[in-house]
Specification:
The protein has helices at residues 12-43, 102-112, 170-184, 191-202, 227-239, 241-252, 259-278, 281-288, 293-296; strands at residues 58-65, 71-81, 86-99, 122-134, 141-151, 154-164, 204-205, 210-211, 215-222. The protein has 307 residues and is of the alpha+beta class. Helix 1 packs parallel to helix 6, helix 3 (170-184) packs across helix 4 (191-202) and helix 3 (170-184) runs antiparallel to helix 6 (241-252). The radius of gyration is 19 Å and the shape is globular.
Length: 307
């Protein structure tokens, strides 16, 4: 599952259209999720908050600049706040490029051991990142991202999705995992168990001694040497998201809830914020490489509390 720097890299004429194909897919996935989430807002007809106006995404471009001020890519930040179903949800897509700074090089070298990075620290990255914090505490929060990363020394894919309920329902957890397995099994029977275990390890909060949610799937540094196969797996991780999550929203959004349940939701959000600020690689990489901080930190909840 890890990148093998000894495998031959596609030449420049070959990798360029593959970068374009990956970036186009992440944008297509973003569009389908935004449409589905606004449809959930429109269809919320009864239960808490049903008498309010349906939420809509606010879309704004994001811009990244290199140290000399030149263009270094960007993307779209799409955020819905104060909806009937979604208290805050961000669906961001970006394609950025430039050179890795010393700290980013050191972190990547420690994890991957790629030779030649100091001599040629160029990079290109594209991906989608989503975090949803829900109005009703019975509806689980959720995270999803997929991405492609390229350097002159190697390329790889990463990402996954995980469920973060404050009030867990065993049947919801089972549905989320079963749907992901359904989409991943065609890529090999060993893929889903491996990515599930990886998610359990990655989304663990050491200083709390617990997971931040009920898991999901996750991979990083994924490069088998077969770009088409690796990209197909990455696409199916993204395709699994809506059928894994939307039925849970539809099942729980109309349930009444108590102040104690809302309090539990806010405390759980504090746990989520701790993880994203202390451990999450995507947050660290985005801030280290000068991406729009509002886009990088859109994963943080609108309200949270600590005991």
């Amino acid at each position: 599952m890890t990148t093998d720097a000894t495998q031959p890299m596609p030449d420049a004429d070959d990798i360029a259209p593959r970068k374009d194909e990956a970036a186009a897919w992440f944008r297509t996935l973003r569009d389908s999720i935004v449409e589905a989430f606004e449809a959930l807002e429109d269809s919320h007809a009864d239960g808490p908050f049903a008498d309010e106006a349906p939420g809509r995404f606010e879309v704004s471009p994001t811009v990244r600049r290199s140290d000399d001020g030149s263009d270094a890519g960007g993307g779209l930040m799409s955020v819905m706040r104060g909806g009937r179903v979604f208290e805050k949800v961000g669906v961001n897509v970006s394609t950025v490029h430039g050179t890795l700074g010393a700290r980013a090089q050191a972190a990547m070298a420690a994890r991957k051991g790629l030779p030649g990075m100091a001599e040629d620290p160029r990079f290109w990255a594209s991906g989608i990142s989503l975090v949803a914090h829900m109005r009703n505490p019975h509806v689980p929060a959720v995270h999803m991202n997929t991405r492609m990363f390229w350097t002159p020394q190697a390329w790889w894919f990463g990402g996954g999705s995980d469920l973060n309920p404050c009030l867990e329902y065993a049947e919801d957890t089972a549905h989320f995992h079963a749907t992901q397995q359904e989409y991943l099994d065609p890529h090999g029977p060993e893929i889903y168990p491996r990515l599930k275990e990886w998610a359990d390890e990655y989304f663990f909060i050491p200083h709390r001694g617990r997971a931040r949610g009920v898991g999901g799937i996750f991979m990083d540094d994924h490069c088998t040497g077969d770009w088409d196969a690796d990209f197909a797996l990455t696409r199916d991780i993204g395709r699994a998201f809506l059928p894994a999550f939307v039925p849970l929203v539809e099942r729980r959004r109309s349930q009444p809830f108590t102040e104690a349940e809302r309090d539990a939701q806010l405390v759980h959000r504090g746990l989520y914020a701790e993880y994203n600020l202390v451990y999450d690689r995507g947050t660290k990489f985005g801030l280290e490489t000068g991406h729009d901080p509002d886009a990088v930190l859109m994963s943080l909840p609108p309200l949270a509390k600590w005991r």
